Backbone:
């Protein structure tokens, strides 16, 4: 029987593989409220390289948490943002694969491939009515050709990687996600439909896709953009997915994935409304927010925990350019707004936590400080055992913060309609 991704799923990144039980407790709290949200522990190759960890550690932490807390629902381990050259180490340990085709997106496909696609899909040109989208789309053949030229090479790469996985793990033995969010502009409904049709041509039975949305999805802070426009785009994307399921035979579980979805509080209500209207599911990735709760909890604990949190910030500020470079598209740090190392040395626990914790109502909250620490986990990784020992020493306060963050700020706002 093929794996089928449940309606609601939560990507719970865990940089140092210490918070799986705390993360799972948030899903257990949701279950007590009558809603099933399955956890998907995700960690990318870049994060493993930075930390010096192996994919086996993510699987081990997830399995141990599930056993310890008696979780009986589904759960998954996501090989996040894998490419053909990085996927091999994940295959024995993952049952969810996020296929990243960013390197090929925008590179022109061969003319013969474009022509062949146009011949297979005449239905994509002309007047197209999509249930859930108010006005019919008018799509010219030239527009379809231009979109095919932009995306077909990336889709073929996704097909290549999917077939490699299917051969290694077996058809139906894993969940497939395709990431299309790292493009310059959001996909239009017509472009998204073309991408889905092309993925079907490649034999990719994806169950979730991450398109590009309007606005900024900066790491660890709220959404920046036009909320009304976002809700319209999100609703239209849901309508396109439903049409693709009916027209092309994609899995009925097909749903949208929102990357860098942690702390995007202002769009949670629009997403909830849209998914309820459409009867659709959702996959939300909340990768780095757990790491930030570890740092906040260390600071909250005071003493050596606070000293370590300050040391991490000092290291992050010293290596700002190096740390920010891989995340340039998803952070906006105003350098003059960052406090000096000397100033932070004098902070109390309350001052450090106030600057870091994502509470815009707090006058001390500093989104620049938070974003820098979000990408600064490499500093903690270089501390090695000293940082891991601190996670053990302050486990109780860290676990409390991690669970409360996921449940109170994320799950309740998005899935339970309570703030």
Residues:
């Amino acid at each position: 029987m093929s794996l089928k991704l449940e309606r609601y799923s939560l990507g719970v990144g865990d940089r140092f593989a210490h918070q799986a039980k705390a993360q799972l407790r948030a899903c257990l709290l949701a279950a007590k409220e009558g809603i099933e949200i399955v956890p998907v522990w995700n960690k990318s190759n870049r994060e493993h390289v930075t930390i010096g960890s192996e994919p086996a550690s993510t699987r081990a932490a997830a399995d141990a948490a599930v056993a310890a807390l008696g979780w009986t629902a589904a759960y998954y381990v996501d090989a996040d943002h894998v490419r053909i050259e990085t996927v091999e180490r994940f295959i024995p340990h993952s049952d969810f694969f996020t296929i990243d085709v960013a390197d090929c997106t925008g590179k022109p496909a061969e003319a013969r491939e474009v022509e062949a696609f146009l011949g297979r899909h005449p239905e994509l040109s002309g007047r197209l009515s999509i249930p859930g989208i108010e006005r019919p789309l008018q799509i010219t053949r030239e527009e379809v050709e231009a979109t095919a030229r932009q995306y077909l090479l990336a889709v073929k790469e996704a097909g290549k990687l999917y077939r490699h996985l299917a051969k290694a793990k077996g058809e139906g033995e894993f969940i497939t996600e395709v990431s299309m969010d790292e493009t310059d502009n959001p996909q239009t409904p017509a472009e998204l439909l073309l991408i889905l049709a092309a993925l079907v041509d490649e034999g990719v039975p994806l169950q979730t896709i991450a398109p590009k949305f309007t606005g900024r999805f900066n790491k660890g802070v709220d959404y920046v953009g036009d909320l009304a426009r976002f809700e319209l785009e999100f609703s239209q994307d849901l309508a396109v997915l439903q049409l693709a399921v009916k027209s092309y035979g994609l899995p009925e579980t097909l749903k949208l994935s929102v990357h860098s979805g942690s702390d995007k509080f202002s769009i949670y209500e629009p997403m909830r409304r849209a998914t309820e209207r459409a009867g659709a599911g959702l996959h939300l990735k909340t990768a780095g927010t757990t790491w930030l709760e570890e740092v906040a909890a260390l600071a909250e604990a005071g003493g050596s925990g606070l000293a370590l949190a300050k040391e991490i910030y000092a290291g992050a500020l010293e290596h700002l350019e190096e740390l920010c470079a891989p995340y340039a598209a998803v952070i906006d740090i105003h350098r003059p707004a960052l406090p000096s190392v000397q100033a932070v040395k004098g902070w109390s626990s309350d001052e450090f936590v106030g600057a870091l914790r994502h509470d815009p109502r707090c006058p001390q909250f500093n989104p620049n400080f938070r974003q820098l620490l979000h990408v600064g986990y490499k500093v903690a990784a270089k501390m090695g055992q000293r940082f891991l020992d601190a996670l053990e020493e302050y486990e109780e306060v860290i676990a409390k913060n991690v669970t409360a963050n996921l449940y109170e700020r994320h799950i309740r706002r998005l899935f339970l309609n309570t703030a």
User: Anything to note?
Assistant: Strands lie at 8-11, 38-44, 76-82, 96-100, 126-128, 137-139, 175-179, 208-210, 255-258, 282-285. The chain has a mean pLDDT of 96. The first strand starts at residue 8 and ends at 11. The chain has two domains: 8-288+408-414, 291-401.
